[in-house]
Model the fold of this input.
Amino acid sequence: MAPITRDGVELGLPFTETEYRDRAGRVRDEMRRRDVDVLLVLSPANLCYLTGFESIWYPPRAPVGVIVAREDEGLLFVDYDRHRTLVERVALFDDAVFYDYATAIDQLRAAVQDRGWSSATIGVERWAASPGAPLVDRIAVAIAETGANVVAGDWIVDRVRLVKSEAELACVRRASEIVDAAVESLGDYVRPGRTELEIAAHLNSEMAARGGEEPAIRTMVSAGPDVWCRTHSPPSRRPVEAGDVMYVDVCGVQNRYHVDVCRTFAIGRDHPAARAILEQTAGSVDAVIAAVKPGDPLEVAQQAAEQYVFSRFDRERVWWVGGYALGIALPPNWVGHTYLANDAFERFTWEPGYVTNYENILFDRHAGFTASYMETLLMGPERIEVLSTRPRELTVL
Done:
């Protein structure tokens, strides 16, 4: 396929123009289903999904996004003027509005009026990392002052991107290969005296060497007698010691598509108690696969997982069993808007192309260890596929 160009310069986007246009078309279909005429997309992940745009910073004072109109095939990019050169080189769009901090709200209001949207129902994404909520409120008020009916625009793009295309799934599979290789490399790198920070940096370096990008979640390495209570704790300067239990949670990333892998390790010598837990909980993945078929509600998996784990372990030893949608993600958030329990922002079903992580996190407070793993699951045409090839057992380093 021919590369996407602007003014004779190749944009270097990871997907074809056909892929991006198809995504926008499916978003318009979802807008019709929800009776939304125009959608202001502000979520960095959704902006990336529709245009390919990615930045290291999304200013809290400036709305960076794209406007999609239900009856217009064009994409209207909106950003502050200092991003103009970047946007023109790395994003697919048909028209653009560039502003400074002082004129952002006025120019967004003018864009609505100039394009005849003042009588439209306009959805505004509010569940976004940027801009700041007070600015989003002011934008919504300014748009409403034109006569438009402003409604919540959240989860429209998110819902469309829950089901991955073949091009997206190729990125998911590559991300899985990248993270598996990084986790496997720990055997040659980790030894007593390495700090958690060094081990996390090693994982990130190994992934970068294979073309992996920075994850939207910080790589987690946690070890030692407090490991049981440090889930979601960032890596520390503490050196790992012989006898430590260590767990690692890391995402491989390809074109912003994430695949999550968490595994538990023992430093220097075996840890029979952690090993015994993992030998049992590893089977919960097979229980989920056996219970779920395409089209089932997401909670079928959650129910199978909980029945398996809670029939074997007391609930007070289980930090969490569950999962959430994965896909395009940019810092500071990597979690999709649907959960396996189907109790989050929207309900969904196991459609082919749906990707989710799956977590079994158990701990022993008194013995001071954790025994955890996380997988990334992909619903195929007939059954769930586990993307990682790394065994769910305790590995002694």
